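Feature request disguised as a bug: please show the residue count (267) next to Lipopolysaccharide export system ATP-binding protein LptB in the output. Example input:
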Amino acid sequence: MSPAPEPPARTGLSVRSLRKSYRRRPVIRDVSLDLAPGEVVALLGPNGSGKTTCFYSIAGLITPEGGQVVLDGQDITGLPMYRRARLGLGYLPQEMSIFRGLTVEENILAILELSERPKARRGRLEELLSEFGITHLRRAPALALSGGERRRVEIARCLAARPAYVLLDEPFAGVDPIAVGEIRALVEGLKERGIGVLITDHNVRETLGLVDRAYILHDGRVLMSGTVAEVVRDEAVRRVYLGQGFSTSLDAGRPAGLNLVGGRRTP
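Example output, currently without the count:
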């Protein structure tokens, strides 16, 4: 019996010179970015900046007209979403993505049936239910879940496919303050697993409080990229996106407005 193939070396998600136009109007223009394993990165920008088109191009929902999306050294630009998922790229949309007519347990098993051997499925299910604190919800219908509970189930289901990188689309949209804290903890858990996370969200304050780095798009181009402190200090970013009053005072090179507890950066 031949040995199992070695898992691919995880070198990161790399986007190079992505371009996309609609009706001859450029929407993204030569956008490049990188995401390393175990890193949390934000893709942000004002409305109309091209961030959604860029994010969807990385996920495989949109085909770019030029450029490359490279996953661990493999060009995946032309691959459909399911092929990207098999290679380790997970995607969590803003909209409810779990099956509404199924229970929590059934939702996770639906993915495990595709990713795990039959004998391993039940054990893996119990691991995910326990890890995400949803064992007591296992027989609850998806429609009965709160926003935070739903996100936990969605992330557990995403991890059932064993991704190396996860794309989070608007994770803070439409959730209450308690759920925001839960989502932050879940993202920190992904980071601790060595999973790279790329986030796009309109809630810039919550997002910047969570990420290691950020890319700011404006008019289809990367206006600036860097650490949270570098992004918040940048005059061009404040002028076109954050506003002049956004976290203008810095404490030890860090935005004072982000010095919060509960998983966020603290002094």
